[in-house]
Amino acid sequence: MPQSEKLQIISSFEVYKNEQDLANEDRLLLMHAKRSLESAYAPYSHFNVGAAILLENGEIITGNNQENAAYPSGLCAERVAIFYAGAKYPGVKIKSIAVSCKAENQVINDPVSPCGACRQAIAEYETRYAQKIRMIMAGESGRVFIAESIESLLPLMFNRKYLK
Ligand code: THU
Fold this sequence. Notes:
Blueprint: E1 14-16, H1 24-37, E2 47-55, E3 60-64, H2 77-88, E4 94-103, H3 116-129, E5 134-138, E6 144-147
Parallel strand pairs: 4-5
Antiparallel strand pairs: 1-6, 2-3, 2-4, 5-6
Tetrahydrodeoxyuridine (THU) binds at residues 42, 45, 47, 49, 65, 67, 74, 76-78, 112, 114-115, 118.
């Protein structure tokens, strides 16, 4: 019999019934994400996503998805926002990121959750600044999920420790 043991990874999220129950700082950031999704450029998916990033210096950076006729050339809201934060405020730590979405053909009552590529991009900034990034995820309405770190969404992440 081959010998092995089981590695169990537990991710935990705070679950709020709705955005009104959030702490002020989180609710405000989510409001910025929701406002930003209204300016998304999503003529192909008709699925608008907005992201808002709170920096340690108090600045709030927003971004939304930017699609392209050559589909893979588009970019998700989270990366639009986080790359802009990195470009404009290099060295300023990221406290939290709020993400929300709105679809043209259905009401999304479940929290939107960043795609794999965005999780990896966000993880890079946790490593870069050696500080956990609080993730606030909401749909158009309904529950809000909060994770204390991107690690909850990306266990066993690849990061710079492999590149020394
Ligand atoms: N999208 C985001 O902007 N963020 C996510 O977390 C998931 C997906 C965008 C990409 C594309 O423009 C549209 O949503 C449909 O996939």
